[in-house]
What does this fold into?
Amino acid sequence: MSLEIVQTIAEEVQGNRTPENEISPLFLNRWSPRAFTNQPITDEDLNAILEAAHWAPSSYNDQPWRFIVAKTEEHLGVFQAFLGDFNKLWASSAPVLVLIASDSKRENGDPNGAHAFDAGAAWSSLALQATLKGISTHAIGGFDREVARRVLEIPEQFELHAVIAIGYRGDKSSLPEGIAEREVPNGRKPLNQVVFEGKVSKE
It folds into this structure.
């Protein structure tokens, strides 16, 4: 089994992302575009991406995450029924959509207070594995959760977090006006605004 290693920072990222400390280019190269081509994702690549997500850490190893995958025309059409209008403008180009949900209960019926935290870890692993394969992802929070729950027959104890668009990067010229201008890797706040030693500063 060969190891895939990202060793270089993508040219488009260099002008938009500068870390304060040395980190793997993998974390900088991962960003969330909206332009996708219609190139299919192979089952081998998709399964690897989902496999990586499934190996994320979880409290008590409960593995509360669930991935509902749409990759056929029929299933993608069902997902379009609950995406928000803005997201329909671009997400319809992605060849794969995955809804991430998590079980709010443990196997013994007790509440799982870590289920959403664990699902977030799974999403991060999914996105990074996709990046290693040269595939892009974009998490979508704008969708009708009640409609999604109904049409996908998801039990009430599962919380619906995000729909993930997965595909190969397309040209931003394919995006509607107003969206294309946003098609750039974004930066981050200074580290000292989010990291505190000992206690949170009031300044």
